[in-house]
Design brief:
Layout (H helix, E strand, L loop, with lengths): L1 E5 L10 H16 L4 E6 L14 E5 L4 H11 L5 H4 L4 E4 L11 E5 L3 H4 L6 H17 L2 E4 L2 H11 L6 E3 L12 H10 L6 E5 L8 H9 L3 H7 L2 E4 L7 H8 L4 E3 L5 H10 E6 L8 H8 L4 E4 L2 H7 L4 E3 L4 H13 L1 H16 L3 H16 L1
Parallel strand pairs: 1-2, 1-4, 2-3, 4-5, 5-6, 6-7, 8-9, 8-11, 9-10, 11-12, 12-13
Length: 370
């Protein structure tokens, strides 16, 4: 069994949620293969492979630029992956980039942001990904959905109970141990003191940062002293520079940009509360990552965030700044509630494992090939 995975995102310098997904399931899939191999097709840099220790993983760099190849795939359906990878038994598209081939296609659809919040996308990406979604829905024999929420969204497009769709939740990795000295060193580097409110995610309109910062700004001086700074961690993404600059200029707000994993672990450890009021998510990995790290969470009571957070987090209407503010105040002022949600969050995170994600994904491969 020779399975191609279009794995461009895993080679990005600043990996996002899809890269995290790939980095976690590729090793898990590889060790479960009884025969054959995973072929990772990508436009990343030439040089040392990312997975040199995995016997059943091949890494093949594709020719042409990423944007040129992607446009050709989405407009011409050409060239097929076999031209560069040889004979294949299956192709897995882990995003809304459609790689044409002569073999069965399994696709992962993480969310329908491109349809639900098209204004949250740069124009060139919006049209490209909308086209990719159409192609995936047209050609995929199996469609993996991150959550029941995404499953329902897709059913609204394809009809109820589309037999191709399977819910395959994502997982969360156990947190790395961070020594006190290492945490202090990282916090000192960024001028942080322990006991702050934390957000982690790409700076983009869908993440609802404007309302989060506005809610924080309405806290009194005494309340901000108790809650600590509002620390935003994540790459700039495609938020307008003017708006991002305005948010950064608010008193008590700090933006640390993208952080490598070791530093991010230290920043997680120094926080008191995690807030993630996104307007829409297909899964919302940062919510689960915060829970796994014993942080009490405030998140949106919409889409997949309700699915992940209900009963283990404070859920808010993400369009209501006052509700976001009240939830922050509750957690900052109530140590007992923080401890209760930290415990419930850890239990909830333990239900989501990459082991399970890989098992369900591999079963989908086998069911497709027959």
């Amino acid at each position: 069994m020779r399975i191609a995975i279009f794995a461009d995102q895993v080679y990005y310098k600043q990996p996002g949620g899809i890269a995290t997904y790939l980095r976690r399931i590729i090793p898990e899939l590889a060790v479960r293969l009884d025969e054959g191999s995973l072929v990772l097709a990508h436009h990343g840099p030439a040089g040392e492979p990312l997975f040199p220790d995995l016997e059943r993983v091949e890494e093949v760099r594709l020719p042409l630029r990423r944007d040129v190849m992607g446009m050709s795939w989405h407009t011409l359906g050409f060239p097929p992956l076999e031209r560069y990878l040889g004979q294949l038994d299956l192709v897995h598209a882990p995003s809304l980039v459609y790689p044409p081939s002569h073999t069965p296609l399994v696709a992962t659809v993480h969310d329908l942001t491109v349809l639900k919040y098209p204004r949250a996308f740069p124009r060139k990406w919006k049209h490209f990904h909308a086209r990719g979604l159409k192609l995936v829905l047209r050609h995929a024999e199996v469609i993996l959905c991150d959550s029941r929420s995404t499953y329902k969204d897709l059913c609204s497009l394809t009809g109820d109970r589309d037999p191709r769709m399977k819910v395959v939740p994502l997982g969360v990795s156990p947190p790395r141990e961070v020594e006190e000295e290492a945490m202090d060193r990282v916090l000192s580097k960024y001028g942080l003191r322990t006991g702050y409110i934390l957000f982690v995610g790409t700076m983009e309109p869908r993440k609802n940062l404007t309302r989060l910062v506005s809610a924080y700004a309405t806290l009194s001086e005494d309340e901000r002293e108790r809650s600590g700074e509002l620390v935003l961690v994540g790459a700039a993404g495609w938020m307008e520079e003017k708006e991002l600059s305005r948010l950064r200029a608010q008193p008590g707000v700090r933006w640390l940009d993208y952080l490598p994993r070791d530093e991010l672990e230290a920043v997680y450890r120094g926080a008191t509360v995690f807030v993630y009021p996104s307007l829409y998510e297909g899964f919302g990995l940062p919510v689960l990552e915060a829970m796994a790290r014993s942080l009490p969470v405030v998140t949106s009571g919409t889409s997949s965030m309700r699915e992940v957070g209900e009963g283990a987090a404070l859920l808010v209407d993400p369009t209501d700044e006052r509700e976001i503010r009240r939830a922050i105040q509750r957690l900052v002022d109530d140590e007992g509630l923080r401890e209760e949600l930290a415990s419930k969050g850890r239990d909830r995170a333990a239900d989501y494992t990459w082991d399970r994600t890989a098992e369900l994904t591999l079963q989908a491969y086998k069911d497709t090939i027959g």
